[in-house]
Amino acid sequence: MPSRITGFRQDEEGHWVVLLSCGHSQHVRHQPPFSERPWVLDAEQRAAKVGAVFDCGWCRQQK
After folding, report:
1. Phi and psi torsions of 7, nearest 5°
2. What's the pLDDT tens digit per position in 20-59?
3. Would you list the domain boundaries of the chain?
4. What is the layout of strands, in order, in the sheet containing 3-10?
5. Given a cut of 90, is residue 13 above it in pLDDT?
6. What is the reported pLDDT for 10?
7. Among 11, 33, 38, 54, which is least packed, fewest CB within 10 Å?
8. How many CB atoms are closer than 10 A to CB 5?
9. Do residues 4 and 51 touch, judged by C-beta distance below 8 A?
10. How far from 4 is each of 7, 13, 57, CA to CA, in Å?
11. CA-CA distances (angstroms) from residue 12 to 1, 16, 17, 33, 50?
12. Distance CA 44, CA 35 (A)
């Protein structure tokens, strides 16, 4: 079953963390050229991602 985004929080350094339906969380940084996620910097764009499918790296490792 794919994970879905349930919300976001910021860590102690102000980096955004996605909260997932599987119970895991994962940092989602916009750090070009390594990761292109400009949507993470905008509250409206983050809110639009709630409910979207997200590939959880932790769940993938457990398979």
Report:
1. 170, -170
2. 999 999 999 998 888 899 999 999 999 999 999 999 988 9
3. 3-62
4. 25-27, 16-20, 3-10, 53-54
5. yes
6. 97
7. 33
8. 19
9. yes
10. 9, 24, 13
11. 30, 10, 11, 24, 22
12. 20
Q: For residue 17, which amino acid is it? A: V
Here the tokens at position 16 are 């955004």
Length of the chain: 63
What is the token pair recorded at 50? Answer: 């709630």
| pLDDT average, residue stretch 6-25 | 96
Answer whether 8's CB lies under 8 Å from 16's CB. Answer: yes
62: helix, strand or coil: helix
The bridge status of strand 3-10 relative to strand 53-54 is: antiparallel
Residues in contact with 24: Cβ distance below 8 Å, sequence separation at least 6, in sequence order: 3, 56, 58, 59
Residue 32: the pLDDT is 86
pTM: 0.87
